Amino acid sequence: MADAWLVVGLGNPGPRFELTRHNVGQLVLDELAERRSETFRAHKANARVAETRLRPGGPKLVLAKPNTFMNVSGGVVANLAKFYGIDPQRVVIVHDELDIPFDTIKLKAAGGHGGHNGVRDVAKALGSTAFARVRVGIGRPNGRQDPADWVLDPFGPTERRSLPLLLSDAADAVEQLVGEGLLAAQQKHHAPRV
């Protein structure tokens, strides 16, 4: 589909992980679907999918949440891209990012995985690094906590108060990336908040 975009929120399946830092990508997808009064349905590619439009008459959006664990979600992304006929350049991966402070969003097109195993698996399965990323900052843990444990913990009380705004901003970033292009989205979302 020439006008379609595949937007994938990375995360882990099941209630245990639902509101953890690692699942912030899927929480952003929930926000995008809710804005359009869409619900996710089971897809044979082992994902939950909502098909919608950016706006009436605008590009088609395939919103997807893999049912697999994050580090092995690449196969699902590749199968969905093939099923819908979407090139890697029109794939957007929304994921958590340790190296960005909480409450911060960064966008990039193409490039390396930056040590993120979910992004690494997507690149390997797609055979391309040409997909865009909306990186949602979760920050690093204070003290000696292992980052692997930190990402699997639920958001703390202070973070939970800011989370709705962060998810809304990240959803805005996805919409702007698809609708206006990467540069416009970066100029808005990389600027300091006022």
UniProtKB/TrEMBL annotation:
TRNA binds at residues 17, 69, 71, 117. It comes from the Bacteria. One of its GO terms (cellular component) is cytoplasm. InterPro entries: Pept_tRNA_hydro, Pept_tRNA_hydro_CS, Pept_tRNA_hydro_sf. The record marks 12 as: Discriminates between blocked and unblocked aminoacyl-tRNA. It is found in: Cytoplasm. GO terms for biological process: protein quality control for misfolded or incompletely synthesized proteins; rescue of stalled ribosome. The record marks 96 as: Stabilizes the basic form of H active site to accept a proton. Its EC number is 3.1.1.29. GO terms for molecular function: peptidyl-tRNA hydrolase activity; tRNA binding. Signal peptide: none annotated. Pfam families: Pept_tRNA_hydro. The active site is at residue 22. Keywords: Cytoplasm, Hydrolase, RNA-binding, tRNA-binding. It catalyses: an N-acyl-L-alpha-aminoacyl-tRNA + H2O = an N-acyl-L-amino acid + a tRNA + H(+). Gene3D superfamilies: Peptidyl-tRNA hydrolase. Belongs to the PTH family. Catalyzes the release of premature peptidyl moieties from peptidyl-tRNA molecules trapped in stalled 50S ribosomal subunits, and thus maintains levels of free tRNAs and 50S ribosomes. Hydrolyzes ribosome-free peptidyl-tRNAs (with 1 or more amino acids incorporated), which drop off the ribosome during protein synthesis, or as a result of ribosome stalling. NCBIfam families: pth (TIGR00447). HAMAP family: Pept_tRNA_hydro_bact. PANTHER family: PEPTIDYL-TRNA HYDROLASE (PTHR17224:SF1). Monomer. This is Peptidyl-tRNA hydrolase.
